[in-house]
């Protein structure tokens, strides 16, 4: 399509055939979302089609204002699309969320400052399911804190934790719901480079162990390529998917993955797409 | 668990250090106050200022001692007014804020009225309350409530509304109701703001009590001030002023102590609010 972009081996494309789309864990058909800005309707998402298989790890990458966060909110049932249909595990996103199938993680950890790490991790589970006792919730939250490597921080308040630790508490809180789907909106955006890598590696580890379907929204090309099996590149005005790129980096992903030709090729391809989008935006 | 005594010990020692530092910090203030009082005493003596114009500090101390029974009774009356008024003002302020947040439509109607009401010079309402409720406790308490509920309502409202939107989204995503989000997230989150509002309200309450007594009373420190000034007993006026100030200070520190005891998890908020 674009001569100037590095060639990508598309022979092993994992683009699901029509039959597979039916079994998709998360599916979206022709989604459009309008926001009202200063009284005027503005289309922020247009013609989004998705078929995300179970237990996969996909990323959405794109410039700010491309509606990737809005798309995540649609998948979480927090924003109702104006057009089209979304299904999560065969249910409407709202219903799926109510049945604790969706775990959410945002850029800011959004922990309650008056509660300990353990209480924070247990909090959402207790809210979601009134039949879970305080003790059960605490047990489960403790288990999840150990999983994200915070066994020693149970009693600490958020103000006593570093940014990376707070974010891991937020991930533990989402995991405590035992969701089928983990939706993450730039979860590592506020972290420094090293913490960012460390936390994303532990996320990869959790994903491999739990087999959740993970949807990640990110700004970082490296993060998208390193973590995902498939990257959706989004463009602006209106927000739409301009390309879906399968990532053929070998498994399991390690420090060495960064040096793989498949990694650098995907990285360069995505950078090309994003720069092109950026230029188009500047011209328009 | 075994680390508990150690942390306590550290906390203990650091609080001792804090007290020591506070005393060192306050030393210049004490010195300055003493210097001003000495200069005042000297000036009165040098220029032979009559006692009814401006009493010397020593005369005020004498008035304090001589009228101690009268002042004690007046202090008790005023303190009861302040306490009742403040508690009611806090209750009204909290309820107004909760109503505005819980019932959005009603809140949109109520909020401008609350702000409008705040712009009435409430001191001017004192005679009306006397007219309605007589000379007893009721008009003073009413005046205090009317003066002091506003900072409580506004600060609490700010606290209730400043919860991160993403946290609300998180709660909504698991099907939490408005009431549940209010109870479990918004209200605890608003506590530091509420305490800041209460600190303003307690100082307003002292003002309200004195103004209420000025407007018409037969007891209280405001009444003593007014009565003594008609008798040209200026030393007693000043003595009562000293007592009012100390009373106000005491009330203020009680609220601040409660703040520290209740919301130890919000250490940064205080300094932020003061700046």
Textual characterization of the structure:
The complex is a heterodimer of chains A (284) and B (275). With 284 residues, chain A is α/β, with parallel strands linked by helices. Chain A folds into 2 domains: 53-79 and 93-101 and 180-284, P-loop containing nucleotide triphosphate hydrolases (Rossmann fold), CATH 3.40.50.300; 108-178, no CATH class. Chain A is 38% helix and 23% strand. In chain A, α5 (134-147) packs across α6 and α8 (221-227) crosses α9 (261-283). Chain A is globular, with a radius of gyration of 19 Å. With 275 residues, chain B is mainly α. Chain B has 2 domains: 1-48; 53-274, MetI-like fold (Orthogonal Bundle). In chain B, 84% of the residues lie in helices and 0% in strands. Chain B contains 11 helices and no strands. Chain B has helices at 4-47, 57-66, 68-102, 104-118, 126-133, 137-161, 165-173, 178-215, 221-230, 234-262, 267-274. Chain B is flat. At the A-B interface, α4 of A face α7 and α8 of B.
Give me some keywords for this one.
heterodimer; A: 284 residues; alpha/beta; Rossmann fold; 6-stranded mixed β-sheet; 3-stranded antiparallel β-sheet; 9 helices; 23% strand; disordered N terminus; B: 275 residues; mainly alpha; MetI-like fold; 11 helices; disordered C terminus
> What coarse outline of chain A follows from CA principal-axis ratios?
globular
Helix content of chain A: 25-40%
Total domain count of chain B: 2
* Broad structural category of chain A: alpha/beta
At the fourth CATH level, what is the homologous superfamily of the largest domain in chain A? P-loop containing nucleotide triphosphate hydrolases
User: Beta-strand level of the residues of chain A, as a percent range?
Assistant: 15-25%
């Amino acid at each position: 399509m674009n001569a100037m972009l590095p060639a990508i081996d598309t022979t092993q494309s994992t683009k699901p055939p029509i039959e597979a789309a039916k079994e998709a864990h998360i599916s979206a058909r022709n989604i459009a979302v309008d926001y009202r800005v200063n009284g005027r309707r503005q289309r922020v998402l247009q013609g989004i089609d998705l078929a995300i298989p179970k237990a996969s790890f996909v990323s959405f990458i794109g410039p700010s204002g491309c509606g990737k966060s809005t798309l995540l909110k649609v998948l979480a049932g927090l924003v109702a699309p104006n057009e089209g249909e979304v299904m999560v595990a065969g249910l409407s996103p709202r219903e799926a969320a109510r049945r604790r199938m969706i775990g959410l993680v945002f850029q800011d950890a959004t922990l309650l400052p008056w509660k300990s790490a353990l209480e924070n991790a247990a909090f959402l589970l207790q809210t979601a399911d009134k039949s879970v006792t305080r003790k059960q919730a605490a047990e489960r939250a403790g288990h999840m804190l150990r999983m994200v490597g915070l066994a020693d921080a149970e009693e600490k308040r958020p103000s006593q934790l570093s940014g990376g630790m707070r974010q891991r508490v937020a991930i533990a809180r989402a995991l405590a719901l035992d969701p089928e789907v983990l939706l993450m909106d730039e979860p590592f955006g506020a972290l420094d480079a090293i913490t960012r890598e460390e936390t994303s590696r532990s996320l990869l580890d959790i994903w491999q162990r739990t087999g959740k379907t993970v949807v990640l929204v990110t700004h970082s090309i490296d993060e998208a390529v390193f973590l995902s099996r498939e990257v959706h590149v989004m463009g602006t005005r209106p927000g739409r998917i301009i390309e879906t790129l399968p990532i053929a980096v070998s498994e399991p992903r390690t420090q060495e993955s960064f040096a793989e030709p498949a990694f650098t090729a995907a990285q360069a391809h995505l950078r090309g797409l994003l720069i092109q989008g950026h230029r188009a935006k500047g011209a328009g | 668990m075994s680390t508990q005594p150690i942390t306590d010990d550290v906390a203990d020692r650091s609080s001792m250090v804090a007290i020591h530092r506070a005393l060192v910090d306050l030393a210049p203030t004490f010195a300055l106050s003493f210097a001003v009082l000495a200069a005042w005493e000297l000036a009165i003596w040098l220029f032979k200022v009559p006692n009814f114009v401006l009493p010397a500090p020593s005369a005020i101390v004498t008035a304090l001692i001589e009228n101690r029974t009268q002042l004690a009774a007046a202090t008790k009356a005023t303190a009861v007014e302040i306490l009742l008024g403040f508690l009611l003002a806090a209750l009204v302020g909290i309820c107004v804020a909760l109503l505005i947040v819980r019932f959005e439509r009603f809140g949109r109607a109520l909020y401008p009225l609350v702000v409008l009401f705040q712009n009435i010079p409430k001191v001017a309402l004192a005679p009306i309350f006397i007219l309605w409720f007589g000379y007893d406790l009721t008009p003073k308490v009413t005046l205090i409530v009317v003066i002091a509920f506003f900072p409580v309502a506004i600060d609490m409202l700010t606290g209730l509304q400043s919860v991160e939107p993403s946290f609300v989204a998180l709660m909504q995503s698991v099907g939490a109701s408005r009431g549940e989000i209010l109870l479990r997230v918004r209200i605890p989150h608003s506590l530091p703001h509420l305490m800041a509002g209460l600190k303003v309200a307690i100082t307003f309450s002292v003002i309200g009590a004195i103004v209420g007594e000025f407007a018409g009373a037969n007891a209280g420190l405001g009444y003593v001030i007014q009565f003594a000034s008609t008798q040209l007993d200026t030393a007693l006026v000043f003595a009562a002023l000293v007592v009012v100030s100390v009373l106000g200070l005491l009330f203020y520190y009680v609220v601040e102590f409660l703040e520290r005891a209740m919301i130890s998890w919000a250490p940064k908020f205080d300094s932020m609010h003061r700046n």
